[in-house]
From TrEMBL:
Keyword Cell membrane: yes
Membrane-topology annotation of the record: Multi-pass membrane protein
Protein name: Permease
Keyword check for Cell division: no
Organism per entry: Enterococcus wangshanyuanii
Subcellular locations according to the entry: Cell membrane
The family this protein is said to belong to: Belongs to the ABC-4 integral membrane protein family.
Length: 693
């Protein structure tokens, strides 16, 4: 009997279960394909030891499980709410709660098994497509063979069986908690609650809207907010705390908005009598009150989920751009080599067929002591006493001819300098240099400008900042040490083979250590930078803190092709995982809202039947349905997009990048997805309430 009853209920709930089935199947496909990629030997062999995709795919799989488990719990909750009366009737006719739980367990297991089998079948079919997309994202030339991963099928099956069991256990627990009286008469309580709006709730509604606006205000003024927190006892911790504070404010505001603010808006609308009694607005308002009472918490969760999904997609796109731009920073030319390894690199290039040197520029640096100040936010300046790299303006301009990332520099006064620092590549809005530099010769230089550092990997320059000074001032500096780097551009038909050959001949290593010790004494910079240590031999038992001489080493060379290949693979893998997870999150949130509205349609059949009997046309009913669904779909979409947009703005103010347009494009993608869900849901909703096939 239970099996027959299960099948009968399944057919009666087919439309709701169809949405559940499609979402679950898509999740199984994505999870299987993520798992199967880790067993794709042609892909993993091509990546070698540079990138390990198993870690990223396993993390993606865990996040998929978390998202789909949340969806299953939410969908299961809707099914139980929709079938309260049915469960109550089962109890009244003598069915035990164990039998009712078994009935729901069979339905969940049956639907889950179909979703799992279908998802695995489609996953096997589309796994090649997934691997091709990943290979394209990582710029890999690899043959994507069709294969079936048995370990991935087993892993996917085990994971989803455990999730189905978890959902079934939760259903059983809820069924045992429900009482027959509550199951049969929940709507009257909800209707009564929806008609009450106390002053306290109205105040919470206003407070919720103000919190969201305040969070947006702090986001728009993020630099000032960070500076304010850093002036407190939090210190630099304020830099990390500021985004968390804004996040908490927006989350609390969003919860209050859907719990109370929307009720307040509806209440204020009813005060406008001319609008309230126009057409079917009175019916729409009444239904809206009930909807908001039933689904306020769900809309809050959906909105936060939307913001996270958009942040995931937009953030991935932005980080991809930042990561790819970092290649231009560390390797603006094909090769930058220290003097010790120049001959080996040139010999390797000359021995490689179809390869020639297009340009070779010598970069001359002087490393000497300097005192300068950094300002973090609007906090007081912090003095630094370290060596600094100095380059002559003429040498900079010579290099600029073969490095198009370098911008023109003009020094109007003899003591002007321009700072090139990697800080400006990322945290230009928060950390900046103060007004002057004092060198070991005790010459004071004024900062004419601060530019991003596109001179190449700063590890080649001992990780110290670099400044550009006039040729005259450069020649006057006699303290410290001098060294040279060589920027090489090549013309090669097989860049990968050349890069691999150089990597075989010249291993990346640390060379040419320098030792320095400086102090600020008598308003002067005193100390030394030397290629040999001037520190006395460390005695037995002497701790490192007793020695104030610092030691730094230089990297021997960088290869643009190697860095670009690694970064493409790393960022491609990152954006691949983030994009699929973000799209899955959007599908899940849209499906949750769709399921809820289908449940509402079943509840409100009688009301719409009554409207038809009193003469309301189908055209007006359709308009009413679209109006009601817009209240459910559009507020989460709009607020979620606003949250994500301000989050992206905060990110852009802290970390400089030219790729944030991709993040805003993802917001447009969400709008299109949700409009599709909105129109599809409304069309099916109309068919349900009008009882059409």
């Amino acid at each position: 009997m239970i099996f027959n009853l299960s099948w009968k209920n399944f057919k009666g709930q087919f439309l709701n279960y169809l949405v559940y089935f499609v979402s679950m199947t898509f999740a199984v496909v994505v999870y299987y394909c993520f798992s199967a990629l880790t067993y794709n030997r042609s892909l993993t062999n091509r990546l070698g030891q540079e990138i390990h995709i198993d870690g990223a795919m396993n993390l993606g799989g865990v996040l998929i499980v978390i998202m789909i488990l949340g969806f299953m719990f939410a969908a299961n909750h809707f099914f139980l709410l929709k079938r309260r009366k049915e469960i109550g009737l089962y109890q009244l006719v003598g069915m035990k709660k164990t039998q009712i739980s078994l009935l729901f367990f069979i339905e969940t297991l049956f639907l889950g098994a179909i979703s799992l089998i279908t998802g695995l079948f489609l996953g096997v079919i589309f796994s090649k497509l997934f691997s091709m997309i990943l290979a394209k994202a990582m710029f890999l030339q690899v043959e994507s063979l069709f294969f079936i991963s048995v370990p991935s099928m087993v892993q996917t099956s085990v994971v989803f069986v455990f999730m189905l069991l978890a959902v079934s256990i939760r259903s059983t627990w809820l069924i045992y908690l429900y009482q027959v009286t509550n199951l049969l008469t929940p709507e009257k309580k909800r209707e009564a609650a929806s008609n009450r709006l106390s002053r306290f709730k109205a105040g919470l509604g206003v407070f919720g809207a103000l919190l969201i606006l305040f969070g947006y205000f702090l986001s728009y003024n993020i630099v000032q907010f960070i500076s304010f927190l850093m002036k407190t006892s939090l210190g630099f911790g304020g830099f990390f705390l500021a985004p968390l504070v804004i996040l908490a404010i927006c989350c609390i505001g969003t919860f209050l908005f859907f719990k109370y603010t929307m009720h307040l808006v509806v209440y204020l609308f009813t005060k406008n009598r001319s609008a309230y009694y126009r057409n079917l607005n009175m019916v729409a308002v009444g239904n809206t009150k009930l909807h908001m009472t039933r689904v306020g918490s769900t809309l809050f969760a959906v909105t936060i989920f939307i913001a996270i999904a958009l942040g995931m997609i937009g953030g991935a796109a932005s980080i991809y751009t930042i990561g790819m731009n970092s290649v231009n920073i560390v390797a603006p030319n094909d090769y930058i080599v220290a003097e010790d390894d120049l001959d080996k690199v040139m010999t390797t290039i000359e021995n490689q067929s179809d390869t020639s040197v297009k340009s070779l520029v010598e970069l001359n640096y002087k490393l000497t002591g300097s005192r300068y100040s950094l300002k973090i936010g609007q906090d007081a300046s912090q003095s630094n006493l370290t060596p600094i790299n100095i380059m002559a303006l003429s040498n900079y301009r010579e290099f600029q001819k073969y490095n198009h990332y370098l911008k023109n520099i003009e020094l109007k006064h003899p003591t002007d300098l321009v700072v090139l620092d990697s800080i400006q590549n990322t945290l230009a809005g928060v950390i900046r240099y103060d007004s002057d530099f004092i060198f070991s010769e005790n010459t004071r230089f004024q900062i004419a400008d601060v530019r991003p550092d596109y001179l190449g990997q700063d590890l080649l320059r001992y990780s110290f900042p670099t400044v550009i000074v006039s040729d005259e001032q450069f020649n006057k500096i006699n303290t410290g040490i001098s060294y040279s780097l060589y920027a090489i551009n090549v013309d090669s038909k097989d860049e990968e083979a050349l890069s691999d050959k150089i990597a075989e001949e010249i291993k990346p290593k640390w060379i040419s250590p320098v030792y320095y010790r400086y102090q600020w004494k008598g308003q002067k910079v005193e100390g030394y930078t030397s290629k040999t240590s001037r520190n006395p031999e460390k005695k037995e038992g002497q701790s490192p803190s007793d020695l104030d001489e610092q030691e730094y080493w230089q990297l021997n060379y960088t290869s643009r092709f190697s860095d670009l290949r690694y970064k493409r693979r790393e960022m491609g893998l990152f954006i691949y995982v983030a994009m699929f997870l973000g799209i899955l999150a959007l599908i899940i949130t849209g499906s949750i809202l769709m399921l809820h509205q289908f449940s509402e349609a079943e509840r409100e059949k009688e009301r719409y039947e009554l409207l038809k009997k009193i003469g309301v046309s189908e055209k007006e009913i359709r308009k009413l349905v679209y109006q009601q669904n817009s209240i459910i779909f559009f507020p989460p979409m709009i607020i979620g997009v606003l949250h994500a947009s301000f989050a992206i703005y905060v990110f852009s103010m802290i970390i400089t990048s030219s790729g944030y347009w991709l993040a805003y494009l993802s917001c447009g993608l969400l709008i299109l997805i949700y409009l599709a869900y909105y129109f599809l849901t409304s069309a099916i909703y109309i068919r349900i309430v009008l009882e059409k096939d």
